[in-house]
UniProtKB/TrEMBL annotation, chain A:
Residues 182-362 form the Peptidase M16 C-terminal domain. This is Peptidase M16. InterPro entries: Metalloenz_LuxS/M16, MPP/UQCRC_Complex, Pept_M16_N, Peptidase_M16_C. It comes from the Bacteria. One of its GO terms (molecular function) is metal ion binding. Residues 63-175 form the Peptidase M16 N-terminal domain. It holds the Pfam family Peptidase_M16_C.
Amino acid sequence: MNQVTFPQLEETLYTEVLDNGLTVFLLPKEGFHKMYATFTTKYGSVDHRFVPIGDSSPVQLPDGIAHFLEHKMFEDEDGDIFQQFSKQGASANAFTSFTRTAYLFSSTSNKEINTTTLLDFVQYPYFTDETVEKEKGIIEQEIRMYEDNPDWQNFFGLLSAMYENHPVHIDIAGTAESIAEITKEHLYTAYRTFYHPANMTLFLVGSFDPEEMIELIRSNQKQKSFVPPEEPVRFQEDEPEAVRSARLEKEMPVQVGKCLVGIKEKRAGREGQEMLKRELALQTALEMLFGRSSEGYSDLFTKGLIDDSFSFDYTAENTFGFSVIGGDSEKPHILEEEILSKISSAVKDGFDKESFERIRRKKIGFFLRALNSPEYIANQFTRYHFNNMHLFDVIPVMEELTLEEVESIFRDHMDLETQAAGCLIFPEGEM
Amino acid sequence: MQTFTSNTIQSHVFTTKTYKTNTIILQLRTPLTREHITEKALLPSILERGTEHFPTRAHVQAALEDLYGASLTADVVKKGEHHVTTFRLEAANEKFLTDAEPLTERAFQLLASVLLHPNLEENAFPSTSVEEEKRSHRQQLRAVYDDKMRYANKRLAEEMCRNEAYSIPVLGYEEDLEQLSPESIYHAYTELIRSAHWDLYVVGDIEPEDVRSYVEKYMKLPAAEPADYTPDVYANAEESRVVKEAQQVQQSKLHIGYRTGTVFGEPDYFALQTANTLFGGAPHSKLFVNVREKASLAYYAASRLESHKGIMIVMAGIDESDYDQAVQIIDKQLEAVQAGDFTDEDIDQTKAVLKNQILETLDVPRGRVELEYQGVLTGHPVSAEQWMLEIDKVTKEDIVRAAGRIVKDTTYFLHGKEHESA
């Protein structure tokens, strides 16, 4: 087991890659009662076309398959895994994102038993025609819930304005129609291809003994046999550089309108330090431009265009990346215009040194605060790891970042001619 | 946790090295009343708009950024018929920073500046800030309608408690906004500062003596006279009532309100909490198993307690056509809990889940404070350790007795418009 200490953070991280390919990270934290564990596969909603393991030609499975699989993993012959965790005093959950499916639990007792349960249920697929059919009603209600959520509709509207072919614009849960087609064979195909230990990461954080825990994990994994690992072959649709459409407008039964502006990365495929630096630089730039202390925020607020719901973020994965800015507004059109004009002024004039230093401090402080949270550490660490970045590099990279670098990355990203899109939601009758 | 009183503020200090931050939380408690409700809802954002020392929002935010991105959040909530205005400031512990400078004292100064030294124009809040915040607040009030789960909860409280203070929405009323002036809001502010019960919580690597000196130095309250009051907790269930409403929604929201007859601070509260978890508070509970897993009617089906008001609420998102079946299953599950139709294993499982929740809460500074504050609110302080012991003592008879007092009051159903039912 490899051990690295981060003196400034007072954290020690243990790492081991097991014989079967599973990567294990252990981060013991003193003073905590609980342990939080995530078991994550590098498989999400964008991986819908791939070559099944042991096969030679690609298949495309129905939209929502990764999320459906996540739901179905929680059941075996004996029933519901939630029940078992509950009996062991743990609370379990799972989520599916664009690029990952994570299974998790937190518990303050029975930590060894719960870790074993986590490893065992995720490594034991059990699907029948009957249980697959029964799940469709539950997931359909989950989809309906999101259909009524105007923020979710706004976000996916923005993604479909930005992306033409890339599956990131498809709702993670799929649609009622697409999930109706899902069969147990689909689930087994996806499972065998993406749930190999070599495609997965286990992260444990909180109160536990790392030596005892790694022993338990090693012996648990030794008892199981897996086929030799094969890197899954994913097919990505060709995506044009530019956005598909500059604006999408929708009516919904809401009282307050909404506006989101998105800036699509021209070129994806970054990873490691390059990706980390770009992400931190763009988040810093957005904070200088639209954060609570910015002139931009005060101006938008004074003009009556935004409220507390206003927010912004930049996020990237290997095959896509984008900035999103916006929130509730009674004048979505004007807000869109103002956001774009503030970006273009900043592209022209750059940022000032003093606010850069302040925002740098703010981001370092935010990161320290986030390290109080086992959930944040496990989920972000895994995401960073899948993109060949290291979570604990955030502070050194932030400390080294210069204003010139931020401005240059900002200018490269913010090509408003071809890369900007807006999604506006209007109350019925106001469009 | 160490507790002491100075400047009429009750301070609670929990010294620990577990976190990388120091957290300061101020709770201002008053009775939940119609009067000043909208003014109080506006105060947190108006106070963040500027102080004597940091005259604009940008100045306040820049001061926070200088404290290594300290976060300041403020909001209002109701806990039963208590109104609580909360200010939270969380700042990095300087020992994790390269150029270490003392942040905690500055954090106290900043918080005190926001709360006690607002930026004023002739004994009122600046009129431009007030107008802007009124506009923004109006928008937030309207947006409640757009979040259907929240909307359904608000409507249920309005219908079920229509003759009780609990029906007052904590964000206030849109129709009030017109009449509010910079003077009237300032008046509500001085009233709040004067009459509230103040509790200060500090969690982090900090000594109680330091907290005491910061409080004495920075938090002198002008003429504080916290007024005693007793909130109304009980109301008897009326004859069970159904309220249906149609909107353009894809998923219908079924929210059912019950009277529990038991509130926090009473001996049977822990039995009620166990009963609620068994009924609908966890993935092994009867609602999750029967509404979701067995009947596939819902993605979520859960119950929760309003501990300070003697209310339990069931929430489920279902298809409109499944209304009768869902109500029937939910009724049957509550009857099962009341009839003692559960095993010893179910009880053990429920207790394990509850105790785990309490321990997990302690890992989050804010969670620890919320937990302790429950006891302060009711005058029955309960430590986390006691809480877990009490849960352990709960027997099957206790659960059946507490559940036996639960009575269905109001059923609220928000459904789609296509098939408008009578």
